[in-house]
Design goal:
Four Helix Bundle (Hemerythrin (Met), subunit A); mainly alpha; two-stranded antiparallel sheet; 5 helices
């Protein structure tokens, strides 16, 4: 997984390594080998493996915001972090994850007092973790994306 800048100045992740996923059946004699992940799933998995550190950073910043003395740079840094997650998740078709990160960004930049923002961010943080777990499960399940319609719409 490498990060590069497009012509428009946007940062994108591109998969440069293959990720091999083993499940319990690959250790059972006589069992069939698991099918390979699609290139889309490999890119999603490579990005999702980077997220636990970012999720931990979000948790840390939200807890720091609950302290009585809050620096405005903390809010800006959190906004940049969730915007980065939103952009990369949207580019990899991780819709629910991108949507939750977008809502977190709106809470950070929106009006209201710090206690209200902390309550909203804590709630959305739980939702972000749930969406992360679901996205990780789909990205590591071979053939999970095959039954989805193509991106240009249904072909009926």
């Amino acid at each position: 997984m490498s990060l590069h800048t497009t012509e428009r100045g946007r940062r994108r992740f591109t998969a440069t390594t293959q990720v091999h996923v083993l499940d319990f059946r690959s250790f059972v004699p006589g069992a069939q080998m698991a099918t390979k992940l699609s290139s889309r799933q490999q890119a999603q998995l490579a990005y999702l493996q980077l997220l636990p550190q970012k999720l931990q950073r979000i948790y840390s910043v939200v807890e720091q915001l609950a302290a009585p003395r809050v620096d405005e740079t903390l809010m800006r840094a959190l906004g940049r972090l969730v915007d980065d997650i939103k952009g990369n998740a949207a580019s990899l078709s991780l819709g629910p994850l991108a949507e939750t990160a977008g809502r977190m960004s709106m809470v950070v930049r929106g009006g209201g007092g710090i206690p209200a923002k902390v309550r909203g961010l804590r709630e959305l943080q739980g939702s972000l973790k749930i969406n992360y777990d679901a996205a990780l499960r789909v990205a590591t399940t071979p053939g999970a994306l095959e039954d989805e319609p193509p991106a240009d719409g249904p072909t009926a």
